[in-house]
Design brief:
Helix content: 55-70%
Order of helices and strands: HHHEEHHHHH
Oligomer: single chain
Shape: globular
Largest sheet: 2 strands, antiparallel
Strand content: under 5%
CATH architecture: Up-down Bundle
Distance between the termini: 127 Å
Number of domains: 1
Structural class: mainly alpha
Length: about 240
């Protein structure tokens, strides 16, 4: 039998009795893990988030600059409710205007909106930062209403912007991750926010820095008494 004939016979045998591929048996009760489809990167920046964050940056930058320059903000004359809030001990944090920390928060959100393109990382970052910012804004508004008993219009505007940002971030949560444990992530973010707000409250209570805490009632009364009596301090330096 020639070589060509042998090859044809071998080919016919392979076609007539193909080798069966062994199939692995899956143990009973074992679940098959399905890979989740990869999420595509965001093609363009999140302009809605970036625009809102940009508005917050302009507002807080203006407030911080007026405090550093020693000029009252527009429509915030001396002795007004806005001025009382700005001059309170809650108007600064770590020797910097509270508005400056708000500016950093809005800047972080603007960066996320423009640069972070992975959908899940984008959403997680925006939601965490906006919740922390909203928690601090709620804390300051509560202090203004019930402790200082004065309202700052600029603070209300900043609070409104942060609330809208948090709502937008919540609405934009990716739906392509059905196995994502949103409840666990939400609890984690709430704990982070509570730690941040709680730490700041302890700071303003004078736990970490007595100078940032409540004013000594005796010294406050003495200062008011001297002011009313128009007392003049005379001294000499040798």
């Amino acid at each position: 039998m020639g070589k060509k004939k042998k090859r044809e016979v071998a080919s016919q045998k392979m076609q007539s009795s193909p080798e069966e591929t062994p199939v692995k048996e899956i143990p009973a009760g074992r679940k098959i893990k399905k890979k989740q489809p990869a999420m595509q990167r965001l093609e363009k920046p999140n302009w809605l988030l970036t625009g809102l964050a940009g508005a917050g940056m302009v507002l807080t930058a203006y407030l911080a600059l007026t405090i550093w320059l020693g000029h009252p903000p527009l429509y915030c004359k001396e002795g007004s409710s806005c001025d009382i809030v700005q001059r309170s001990r809650w108007g600064t944090f770590l020797a910097l205007p509270t508005a400056f920390w708000g500016f950093l928060t809005y800047t972080a959100l603007a960066y996320i909106g423009i640069r972070v393109r992975n959908p899940m990382t984008h959403w997680k970052s925006a939601w965490t930062v906006s919740m922390a910012g909203l928690g601090y804004s709620v804390y300051l508004i509560t202090i203004s209403l019930f402790v200082i008993k004065a309202v700052c219009a600029y603070c209300i505007v900043s609070f409104s912007i942060m609330t809208v940002i948090f709502g937008v971030a919540t609405f934009q949560r990716p739906k392509e991750r059905p196995k994502f444990n949103f409840a666990a992530f939400a609890r984690q973010t709430i704990i982070i926010t509570a730690v941040i707000v709680g730490g700041m409250h302890l700071h303003y209570s004078g736990i970490f820095d007595p100078a940032a805490g409540p004013e000594d009632p005796y010294l406050k009364g003495l200062a008011e008494h001297l002011t009313q009596d128009k007392a003049i301090l005379y001294g000499a330096y040798w």
